[in-house]
Amino acid sequence: MRPSGRSTDQLREITLETHVNKYAEGSCLARFGDTHVLCTASVDPGVPGWLRNSGRGWVTAEYGMLPRATDGRTDREAARGRQSGRTQEIQRLIGRSLRAVTDMSAFGERQIRLDCDVLQADGGTRTAAITGAYVALYIAFEHLRRLGVVEKVPLSEEVAAVSCGLFRGIPVLDLDYAEDSEAGADANFVMTASGGIVEIQGTAEDVPFTREAFDHLMELAESGIQRLTEVQRAALGELGGAA
User: Fold this and answer.
1) Among 4, 49, 54, 196, which is 20 to 30 Å from 105 by CA?
2) Binding-site residue positions for phosphate
3) How far apart are CA 165 and CA 188, in angstroms?
């Protein structure tokens, strides 16, 4: 039924490759099928002005797509002189998602910048970015732990994201572009390993959908998040996953 041939509850092939950037304190290349997002975490001294002298740190994110990430070239947003509303919304979502599991009081007045750059897009770029950014952030914190800046990695648990939608009336997990472009409804779920909800973005693209349909999407998302957090733990390997 699905263009990819996947079952309704099947994720795309997911890989999270760590240490792909030699300069960043943390890095991860997240592949959700044909969607590839490079996530780096950079530790900067100092914090935004409104946090100075608070003793607290900050985690923020930037998001962008390369010109040929899609089937046709798009101009760089820098060339257009401003970021699109979509870009701003996604990078704020990434930042909120990672801050939800980070102890901001544990690493002093430092800022960690997460850069999520879409190398290739086939649907679900924001969910891949959040899932990969967690891994990059963990590695950056582990770097600070080795330097003696923090006693332990200040992350309470894994956080990941996945899309679900109604494709030809059927609830399906992890939409690729062919499905997303035809979906009657689609939603992005950001959740923790323990099942905590960070954010849900859901939209009817055709007619309003029912509570029953939403419950099906939620069940698919919960199972998908569990599998994604397992992949995150495996990717971190000897680093041990969440502290």
Assistant:
1) 196
2) 86, 124-126
3) 9
